[in-house]
Amino acid sequence: MNSKNFLPLYFALVLILGLLLGINVNKRDVKPVNGKTFDNIDNVLSLIKNDYVDSVEMDELQVKAIKEMLSEMDPHSEYIEPEILDDVNDQLLSSFEGIGVSFRIEKDTVTILEVIKGGPSEKVGIKAGDRIVYVNDSLIAGVGIQNTGAMRLLKGPKNTKVDVKIHRYDVPELLDFTITRDVIPNNSIISSFMIDENIGFIKLTRFASSTYKEFVDAIKELKKEGMTQLVLDLRGNTGGYLGTAVDMIDEMLPKGSLIVYTEGEHRPRNYLYARRHGILENDDIAVLIDEGSASASEIVAGALQDNDKGIIIGRRSFGKGLVQEQFDLPNGAALRLTVARYYTPTGRCIQKPFSGNKEEYMFEAWDRYESGEMFSADSIHFADSLKYVTPGGKTVYGGGGIMPDIYVPLKNDSSEYFFNKIVNSSILFQNAFEYTDKNRKNIAAYKTVENFDKNFKMPEKEFDKMLKDAEKLDIFGDEEDIKTARRLAEPLFKAYIARDIFGDDGFYQIYAPSDDILQKALSELRKIEKNQD
């Protein structure tokens, strides 16, 4: 049957059945709610509440309606449930109240990766590598606990106490600790050190309330050590506060330079300029970005690029050019609503397209793999309508992230395929973690990252174990593959161990020679330094 003919027949049958079975199909005028003739949402909710055949949980229904509305608008407006609001807000605060550890779920157990120096856990003797088995007499090991659930158990108001039972490697019985919670710093800069006598390195993970102060403090310390050039690593940095990004850029650009401007239907255009002499104004800067760099990270990269300051190196950034404001709701939830777009100094909007499918939008990086963009800048094509020119004459593009000045693609080397599968399956990370867990005292005896890097070698039996673990997952390689994997595994294995024992500085210092994007940045900065001599 033709579908055009079927539909009228279907509705005719509904009308007939309505008459026969007594269903009320008469139209009824909907009276305005609260005097608002066109407030259809309130009207519909009122009708459901007062006339629907069954009882309905109205609060749940409203939340579903709100989420559905927001999903149709843009990918960054969101409704934040009351029960997770504190966790969401804590991500952008300078501190939180808890026990002072970082952890991950390892083999269904909360495993402590780092104990914050001077924090409440260190004070009572908890160590990296400890496994939390009980919290306040509740078993949390082997019961499928997730990160969020563990955080809620361990965080809590200052001066409150939490009892934990710990399993420690080579200690047969569980250890009991009572930890008094305290204020814990929530740092944005996870690594800051001198790469050589001139070049400093800062790894920034987010733009939070304390980030600007952390940044200035780190710069001052690096300058004391002789820094004249900076590598600012924003790879994987998904953003945060717009104001924080603006304050940071203010330290890099001359007073009066346009940093960014914002505009929305209900937000008039607002220009933000550098307001002071910056401590990095006369220094060379390289900013590292990739497909995980978003929002405030892109504001930093775009402002420097459009002002012809420094050099942007890496791969095309995420492409988030929207500004959100958070509104607290009476039920304890919050609404993060997109209120404006931001534009780089040349007028670029770098927001990437949104088709209405949030999952496709968030994982658009996979499309870049399939198109070949990740492996070659030649696969990227921008429309002429998205072309802009900086005051220095450099061509830049809008419409989907920040394109770096120097593109560093992923390696597309078939000889590394076997090694990459081992890394992507977390086999190398897991083996490094287990090795560290069994040898903490011996590794700590190296005392410094430099000494560890110089003298430690990945044991051959550890590499062999890694190969056996790979075989269990049907990951196989020939003799040449294994030879390549052995060469590439050494620095990453050492870097993972160094992170556990010496912190993030240890990881980045040891892995730096293997980091293609970082090495390109160092090469470019050294060229600039040489030309200035």
Q: Report the strand count.
A: 21
| Count of domains | 4
> Major β-sheet, in short?
6 strands, antiparallel
- From the alpha carbons, calculate the radius of gyration and give it in angstroms: 28 Å
Shape: globular
* CATH structural class of the largest domain: Alpha Beta
Give helix % range.
Answer: 25-40%
Low-confidence stretches: 1-22, 24-28
Strand content: 15-25%
CATH architecture of the largest domain: Alpha-Beta Complex
Mean pLDDT: 88
CATH superfamily of the largest domain: 2-enoyl-CoA Hydratase, Chain A, domain 1
User: Remind me, CATH topology of the largest domain?
Assistant: 2-enoyl-CoA Hydratase, Chain A, domain 1
Distance between the termini: 83 Å
Alpha-beta classification:
alpha+beta
Counted by DSSP, the helix tally is: 19
Explain the overall architecture.
By secondary structure, the protein is α+β, with helices and mostly antiparallel strands. It folds into four domains: 3-73, no CATH class; 95-185, PDZ domain (Pdz3 Domain, Roll), CATH 2.30.42; 189-410, 2-enoyl-CoA Hydratase, Chain A, domain 1, CATH 3.90.226; 414-502. The protein has helices at residues 3-21, 40-51, 58-73, 82-90, 120-124, 147-154, 211-224, 242-250, 296-306, 358-362, 365-371, 417-424, 427-438, 440-444, 449-455, 460-472, 479-502, 504-511, 516-532; strands at residues 78-80, 95-98, 101-106, 109-115, 131-135, 138-139, 161-167, 175-180, 182-185, 189-194, 199-204, 229-233, 258-264, 267-273, 284-289, 311-314, 322-328, 334-343, 387-389, 395-397, 406-407. The strands form five sheets. Strands 3, 4, 5, 6, 7 and 8 form a six-stranded antiparallel β-sheet that branches. A six-stranded mixed β-sheet has the order 10-11-12-15-16-21, sandwiched between helices. Helix 8 (242-250) runs parallel beside helix 9 and helix 12 runs parallel beside helix 17 (479-502). The longest helix has 24 residues, at 479-502. Residues 1-22 and 24-28 have low confidence and may be disordered.
